[in-house]
Amino acid sequence: QRFIAARGGLGGKGNYYFLSNMNRAPVECELGANGDKKKYKLELQLIAHFGLLGFPNAGKSSLLRAISRARPIVGDYEFTTRQPQLGSIEYDDFVQIHVADIPGIVPGASKQELGLGSKFLRHIERCLALLLIIDMSAERPWEQYDLLMKELREYKTDLTKKPITIIGNKMDDHDAKLQLEQTRQYLPYPLLPISTVEKINIDKLLLYLRKQYDELITDEWRDRIK
């Protein structure tokens, strides 16, 4: 997409214009008219097939490292992701799927009040689908889903209309295994239980992402992301 950011002014008269029988080598000219002067505030939006979001320390960065070639910072503390990260998954048939990981969301992020995710929610607006990662070792993990959906609705209702998959991380934890079935029954979307530490179901997740990509991708989207 192209647009005219600012129009230049009309050109002035060059020395050729002043050429005459009396002046065979003119050295004068006229300045042109002033062009437009405008200021623009440009807002970058990443283009990715899947947007990955969750609360701090849910394991988003660890997951991105596990499934892609991205190498975000990983640590046992909150807010290790401070800028959006873009990971690329390459399959055997050379199809590439891009996943955008945005900084951790906290309650109030949609209102630009709290957390590093507040100013980065715009990066998931252009994604084909959303991946919500929840910490299955936490008490009542389904409440994380409720809070994430609340933030999405308050930021932009259309985001909740995208295809959504819930990824339940930290399934290597004993409490997570006990809560899995109850969490699955509560959620209205598919729940994929994984562990980035022990690499549980990572291969299944990769197959699932490819299947969803094949179902959602269009020629227009392929051209957009090149």
From TrEMBL:
Domain G as annotated: residue spans: 50-170
GO molecular function annotations of the record: GTP binding; GTPase activity
Keyword Nucleotide-binding attached: yes
Key words of the record: GTP-binding, Nucleotide-binding
Domain Obg, chain residue ranges per copy: 1-46
UniProt xrefs under InterPro entries: G_OBG, GTP-bd, GTP1_OBG_dom, GTP1_OBG_dom_sf, OBG_GTPase, P-loop_NTPase
Protein name (database record): GTP-binding protein
Lineage of the species this protein comes from: Eukaryota, Metazoa, Spiralia, Gnathifera, Rotifera
Organism of derivation: Rotaria socialis
Family matches, as SUPFAM superfamilies: Obg GTP-binding protein N-terminal domain, P-loop containing nucleoside triphosphate hydrolases
Parts of the chain that traverse the membrane: none
